[in-house]
Design goal:
Distance between the termini: 81 Å
Number of strands: 12
Radius of gyration: 22 Å
CATH architecture of the largest domain: Sandwich
Order of helices and strands: HEEEEEEEEEEEE
Number of helices: 1
CATH topology of the largest domain: Immunoglobulin-like
Length: 150
Amino acid sequence: MRPKFLAVALIALVALGVSMLATVGAEAAAATGGSSHIVALQVIVTKVVGGGNVGTFQIDPDQVVPVKPGGSYHLVLVGITFVNKKATQVPVNATFSVHAGRNRLTLSNPGDNSVDVTVGKSGGLIKYVTAKGYDLRRHLASGFITLAVP
């Protein structure tokens, strides 16, 4: 009788553990953008030298990221999603390229969701294309980050 009771107890504990892992896994997937809907994209901009924060900017055709000639900036692409009704930033993997300003912008140190940009005499447009697998609005899957010298 005792081994049968222990076997049933073990099965119940394993089932509880699997249920808990599934819940934790779903929350983790939501926090990383794996299964949650991304409603907006932002770019977090910091200075490469000194690491000073320039700001967080909405990815929007009318949004301009202010830069200075000769400056080097680290751009990080993040999505905005809701986890437990709270807005949360999640990394969004993407590739980056210079769309306009090839002689004025230099890209380096690409990461999964980031790139460094060195600005020449004036700004330009950085094109991003998000990796596949994100649940986001179609118009957010690719677009431009506008860098402008004020």
